[in-house]
Design goal:
Elements lengths: L15 H21 L5 H8 L3 H7 L3 H27 L2 H14 L2 H10 L6 H23 L9 H11 L8 H19 L14 H6 L1
Length: 214
Amino acid sequence: MQTVTPVARKAPRPRADALRNRERIVTAAREMFVEFGPDVPLDEIARRAGVGNATVYRNFPDRDALVREVVCSVMDRTVAAAERALTQTGDAFEALERFVHTAADERISALCPMVQSTFDQNHPDLEASRERCERLIGAIMDRAKAAGQLRSDVDVGDVMIAAAQLSRPMAGTGCDIADRYVHRHLQLFLDGLRAPARSSLPGTALTMEDLRKA
């Protein structure tokens, strides 16, 4: 008598409409978190996404889960932009530029402070996205330095904090002013990163570890 080994069944894949609904929720949440902060009512997010409240809670059991998904998705898209630029051109500095400009378009300066105040910074999903981002940008910067494109006295933390500061509206001004000039000012910053350096920077290069300890 032979023993029949049961065939393992694959978990069913989410339906296409369910995936579209989830993406609509994340997109609407990102827009509204930027506009109104992390405390925007979830039913307002559902309304903007064009789905019911139950659909939001089916995908994200609480606010922390939704905020975390938004932040992780933004980080993943900025990293993907840098990877595409590096694959398409082989130019490390261009990949760095693509990352910085995409981070501004994704409003990363408005979203990342939420990580400091609304939920567990050590959640595995958040750590995985953050580590992937830091690892890739660090590798791109090392490659640009080795090619003589990037000044040697900067580190990943310098790029991250400058990109966040330069893409945030000044006190007393509206977002429309920042939107019109953010890429201009980011490009001025990026041009200042090019080698050879025209001046010596005060202090030491800022690492991501320095930022975490601050």
